[in-house]
Amino acid sequence: MTDKNQRIDLTQFKGMTKGQWLLLDGNGTVITLSDNGDEINIRLFEAYCDDGITEDEDTINKNLIVSAPEILNALKKAYEDMDRNRSNAEYRCGVILGHIKNTCCLSCLKTTLKAEYIL
Predict the structure, then answer these.
(1) CB atoms closer than 10 angstroms to residue 108
(2) What is the torsional sign of CA 27, 33, 34, 36?
């Protein structure tokens, strides 16, 4: 993402394995349960690789990977909240602009806005 206001396209994650992900320690496999209770194993990486990453960093990376479903759900909710707030703000601005167009003077506008929006 080059634009800081650009959103991550969440549709690319449709069809991901649902449910809580758990890491089988040390073997690079995430497990979760299907809707009918069957265990699903997802192989993410080789169990051992001497790539210079510390054990702490490796643990942090693994925790990030298995937290992906929760992070994705939180991001989706944040986008929904942003859209709802933007919609409410646009509505309020439209109402205020309508008052501006239909008000004879600034004094009347201030009175109307104070009464309706407690400005």
Answers:
(1) 12
(2) positive
Asked if 26 contacts 44 with a C-beta cutoff of 8 angstroms, the reply is no
Paired residues of 26 in beta bridges: none
Domain presence at residue 115: no
Query: Which tokens sit at 116?
Result: 């309706």
Residue-wise pLDDT tens digits, 68-105: 888 998 999 999 988 888 877 777 777 666 666 666 66
Question: Do the domain assignments include residue 104?
Answer: no
Instruction: Tell whether 35 is covered by a domain.
Output: yes
CB count within 10 Å of CB 114 equals 10
Pairwise CA distance, residues 47 & 27, whole Å? 4
pTM of the model: 0.59
| Rounded Cα distance, 51 and 102, in Å | 68
Q: Is residue 84 part of a domain?
A: no
Q: Are 17 and 32 in contact (CB under 8 A)?
A: yes
User: What's the domain range around 17?
Assistant: 1-66
